[in-house]
Amino acid sequence: MRWIGFVVIAAFFVSCKKDATRWQTEWLLPVLNDTLSLAHYYNDSTLSINGSQIDINLSRTLLDLSLTDLVKIPDTSISQQYQSNFTVNNVTPGFVFVNSVKVHELDLGDIQLKKVRVQSGQIQLKVYNPLNTAVLYQIELPGVSQNGQAFVQNYTVQPGTAQNPTTATENIDLSGYEIDLGGLQGLEFNQLQSKLTLKTDPNGQTVTIYNNQVFKYEATFKNLRFDYAKGYFGSTLIADQQQFTLPYLDKITSGTLSLPDLSLDLQIENGFKMALRAQIEQLSATNTQGQSVALNAPSIGPSMYISPAVGNWNTLQPSTLNLHFDQNNSNIKSYLENLGAYQQLSYQLQPNPWGNTSAGHDEAFAHSHLRLKVSAQMPMALSADGLTLQDTFELNLAQNLQKSHVTAATVVLDATNAFPLACDLVLYFMKDGQILHTVIADAQLASALLGQIDPSDGLLKKKSKIKIVLPPALVADLQDLNEVAVSASFATTDPSTGLAVQQQVQANAFLALQLQLQLQTQIRP
Amino acid sequence: MRYLFVLLLLSMQYAQAQQSLLINSYGTYNSTGVRRQVADAFFYGGLIDSSQIKQSLDQLQARNTFGLQMGLNAQWQSPWMVSKDQKKWGSSYRWVFGAGVNQYAGLQFSKDFFGLVFRGGLPYTGDTLDLSNLRAQATTFSKLGVGLYNPTTQSSFLVHFVAVQQHLGATIQKGTWFQDPSTAQINLDLIGQANLSSFSSNTYGVAIDIDYRFGASDSSANEPQFQLSIQNLGFARCFQSSTYSLDGSLAYAGFTLAEWQQTNLQALASAYLDSLGFEQTTGPSWILLPAQIQLAKTLDWDSPQRLEAYYGAQFMLRQTYTPLVYVGAQLKVKQAWHTGLGMAYGGFGGLRMQAYSAFRFKHSELLLRSDNIALQNGASIYLQYRCDF
């Protein structure tokens, strides 16, 4: 019986549980206020205004190699040392006991450099003194000079021992230094000379030099970059396969796009005073449906030879090779209309294809570049028929229904469209990739073709107001949804015929968007 | 033995002397315009439907108040005289001890503010809402004190040590809200401050209670006796209170696509708070306690008149409280039962009907009162109990 009493008491208290205080409010929340136009792309080698229309004036650099990329000296250490073969007694203060030159070979593969000028980089010098008196070190790099003055560094290194030699270290900036790698006679290549001179402290004591004492220095070249190089730059093959994705094209899920006739130019620029072989092996594009189209043209495949650049320093004139693709010599139109988001380019570049024919007189300057450029020009006009772009965004609108929360929502889109495109919007609300709710806008974002010319700016434009009502069931599921896919289907429909026709994009066209949220919320303080 | 004898003598003396216990509790909420159903939903829960909100809005004036007071106070009037020497003034007074817990919450607001909170911004697009002169004051404190009282006149004076559990003082001197109906752009102008201290802020102070009776000492003079009561007159020092201030304007029309992509919401919110001139400081502050001053005609149990008037006025040191006046007629139903019916105006509400009943027993008295019998936008109950033993 006791438990019945407990249940009765518990039921009494449960029945007295306070219901949550709550009321409904309605809010209008501005979310997005922006004008999308092509203004950011004018005159930056993408788009240009030509009268009342926009021209696509595309210019992109696919490859850009400079002197630093082509001619490198890896971080290299050289050292020079002196060790007596016998014990020398009574070495008086100020005694010079080493004065020798050493030649160091640099391993640069098939590159044979005679002369370079350092744009940036350092040398780290470290000297060791094992003698029990101070020693004056003079380190000279005869081939390294600035303004005609050879690189010379003097150090007074304090006394040390054979077991624990005293060291001195210094980092020196080599920017602006010229390095002659021609060796003693100037006829060699990749050779660096150094000279070490040692003198005991003139104010020190008389000492003995033992045969176990090693006098040495180490020089480490770091991060060397050059703005001038002369020699033979080798003939190493530069072969690469570049893959890149064109933005937005990877979002196209269906529909077609028709473009006007156009041409495309590929330019290979040789800013080095050396011969160059170039070969475009393949250029292909794959769209989101998996269809691939390869660009076919006579210049795709065979090797082409580009003569050396001419001039010096500021008078340097690169040598260029232009490859032109149009409807007459290629399938460029079908290549582009395939809307290939995934582009693949295979190429080969080879300096000095016939070897060292310049006898080591290849030259490169600060402005020398090896470039691969693509450019295209056409009026910006298109014909779209159900061209559908779809993108998926993460959604995190979890709300606690026990606290203040949204009970109903309507997305309101106010748009002014000056593009000749109409757009139908569909939203797919998903949970873990599975579509739970599909919401269709109540109207179409109308094409500018249906509007009138605004005398203030002379543009044809059309206003639209679109409402996307999120049903209560969707709002109730908001805490479970984690993705939304926005599908926008475009068409350049002729208002009179209802058929998709090619339309030109008017100059200064824009799409002004104001996105607002009408929210009905239950407030629970 | 001698000390034990003295102690026994004193105890007997105290046991023979009269002592009293007074308990005073109250709970009241009221508004000049907000309907009772709206306020009730905050106390008892439930949905505030749109019709109740609309009816409240229809009643609201440009300036409105809503307030809440609750408290429980006890006083022990001891039999211990301050001085046993009849020649000294202290022989007329006895020690009295008091303790209590009180809560005051008052809100002064505009009709537009109520509409914005309870209906949202959508119904007001295109209208400029006036949020100015918003004032919110809330204080919860407890007190423990000691003092003197005169058994003859019933006057008393107590000094309390006060601990403030929570305090909020907020004002918006100037505030406007406008939402453009076509672009939905929200324009908000705000100038305001808020001071907040919580239990952890170590807020302590002192307060005095004065109960002064004057006029006729008994009914034989056929003149009324009055009570001037001052309670909780004092202050407290908060050693760590937070002060927030706003002085700026905000124009929000939505974000651009680049802003949505490149900036996080927290940074955007911070930028908007900056444009509103939001500042937060922390430091010590003084708090004036919600003192209550009341002047009223006292109840005379021995009055020969069967029907007579009662009246009084009450004032609080709070800007959200308007002076309360009340007047009514009281009827001596029996020698031990008086009851009264009257009207009250002020405080947190408008004109309303009040009633009370007082009962006298052999050693105790009980008074029940409500200021919200009819015409009310609130509810109230006052309970006073006195026991002499």
How many discrete domains of chain B? 1
CATH class annotation of the largest domain in chain A = Mainly Beta
What is the name of the CATH topology of the largest domain in chain A?
Answer: Jelly Rolls
- Our measurement of the CA-to-CA distance between the termini of chain B, rounded to an integer number of angstroms, reads 30 Å
Share in β-strands of chain B: over 45%
Name the quaternary structure. heterodimer
Q: Assess the beta-strand content of chain A as a share of residues.
A: over 45%
What Rg of chain B do the Cα atoms give? 26 Å
Strand element count of chain A: 33
In DSSP terms (H or I, runs of 4 or more residues), the helix count of chain B works out at 6
Order of helices and strands of chain B: HEHEHEEHEEEEEEHHEEEEEEEE
Quickly give the CATH architecture of the largest domain in chain A. Answer: Sandwich
Please, what is the average pLDDT of chain A? 83
Main pleated sheet of chain A: 10 strands, antiparallel
Category by helix and strand content of chain B: alpha+beta
Number of strands of chain B: 18
Round the Cα radius of gyration of chain A to an integer and report it: 38 Å
User: Low-confidence segments of chain B, ≥5 residues, pLDDT <50?
Assistant: 1-16
Please tell me about this protein's structure:
With 525 residues, chain A is mainly beta. Chain A has helices at residues 2-15, 67-70, 332-337, 472-476; strands at residues 21-37, 47-50, 53-66, 76-83, 88-91, 96-105, 112-129, 135-146, 149-157, 166-173, 178-180, 191-200, 207-209, 214-232, 238-245, 252-258, 263-270, 276-286, 292-294, 303-306, 319-325, 342-351, 362-365, 369-379, 381-394, 405-417, 422-431, 434-440, 452-454, 459-470, 483-491, 503-504, 510-523. The two termini of chain A are 41 Å apart. The mean pLDDT of chain A is 83. Chain B has one domain. Chain B contains six helices and 18 strands. Chain B has helices at 2-16, 36-44, 50-59, 111-119, 257-262, 265-275; strands at 20-31, 46-48, 63-81, 94-110, 128-130, 134-149, 156-179, 186-197, 203-215, 225-252, 279-288, 292-297, 307-316, 322-334, 337-347, 349-360, 364-374, 379-388. Chain B starts with a helix and ends with a strand. Chains A and B meet through β1 and β33 of A and α2, β2, α4 and α5 of B. β1 (21-37) of chain A pairs parallel with β2 of chain B.
